[in-house]
Amino acid sequence: MAMERLQKILAAAGLGSRRSCEELIVAGRVFVDGKRVTELGAKADADTQRIDCDGEPVRPVKKLYYLINKPKGYVCTTSDPAGRPCAVDIVPCRDQRMFTVGRLDSDTQGLLIVTNDGAFAQRVAHPRHGVTKTYEARVKGGLSNTAKQKLLDGIWIDGHHCAAKWVKIIKRKGRETVLRITMQEGRNREVRRMLGRLGHTVTQLARVGIGSLEDDALRTGRYRKLRVAEIQELMGQSKAPAGRSPKTRRPAKRRSLKGKS
Question: Which of 9, 72, 131, 239 fits 211 for a cystine, CB–CB 3.0-4.6 Å?
């Protein structure tokens, strides 16, 4: 293996995202051949040099990638002081440090990737890499075409301009509307807050797409391994030139969510 940046080696070994690994280096917790390294530009060769973090040797680990359908009530942390179930516990890798790629709040169900590959997680989760997320929302009230356009034009929330990339109203029935909405930013509770600003309370929200990745057959609370082609496609979608966003692909037609489990 050639010389690589130390934070990249740490992330590849499953110690977290590159940013969190940078924090480990700056904190003086990383040693290369017995010497403490605190400079972020430092490089090492994982094949020929001994690398330690907190006194433990850093060894390359097999990269693991799972797609789960997160149920409501699960949180996207590795542990929860309140005792709520964690999304990472759905996958079978008890001996690996696994983490979610981005987050879904506890009230939101749907597709979520769990991995031990920090570099992959950064490229898929961070908004600047342009991997979109698609949601299906059930809201109170009849969402009008004017409101739909406002979602596309954008709404200011806490100083941030939040705009949908794509919106489709699936059905209006009585005092309820079901719609699909594709976002790129992924801020905390963004979809709920945008619709709330328009006077529509979200009663059910599920993520149904990550980039081009969809799986209508994956039941709530279940998991499967990501295919190599899916991993490569997500990485390809994250390589938009700086300042540009990839063209959003309309999600394929699919059955409306009915709380399947």
Answer: 131
| CA–CA dist 85, 18 (Å, integer) | 26
Asked if 224 and 167 sit in the same domain, the reply is no
Collapsed DSSP state (helix, strand, coil) of residue 106 = coil
DSSP 60: -
Q: Is residue 258 part of a domain?
A: no
Beta strands 133-140; 176-183: pairing state: antiparallel
Q: What does the pLDDT average to over 137-157?
A: 95
How would DSSP label each residue in 136-185? EEEEES---HHHHHHHHH-EEETTEEE--SEEEEEEEETTEEEEEEEESS
More confident residue, 194 or 16: 194
Please tell me whether residue 62 adopts helix, strand or coil conformation: coil
Give the number of domains in the chain.
3
Catalytic position from the list 33, 45, 105, 153: 105
- For residue 52, indicate whether it is catalytic: no
Q: Which residue range forms the structural domain that includes residue 164?
A: 132-210
Same domain, 111 and 230: yes
Instruction: Say yes or no: 103 and 229 in one domain.
Output: yes
Q: What are the residues whose beta carbons fall under 8 Å from the beta carbon of 219, sequence distance 6 or more?
A: 69, 260, 261
Query: Do 126 and 229 fall into the same domain?
Result: yes
Task: Check whether 222 has a pLDDT greater than 60.
Answer: yes
pTM of the predicted model as reported, rounded to 2 decimal places: 0.74
Task: Look at residue 252 and tell me if it is in a domain.
Answer: no
The per-residue pLDDT for range 67-126, each reduced to its tens digit, is 999 999 999 988 888 989 999 999 998 777 889 999 999 999 999 999 988 888 888 988
Identify the CATH number of the domain in which residue 75 sits.
Answer: 3.30.70.580
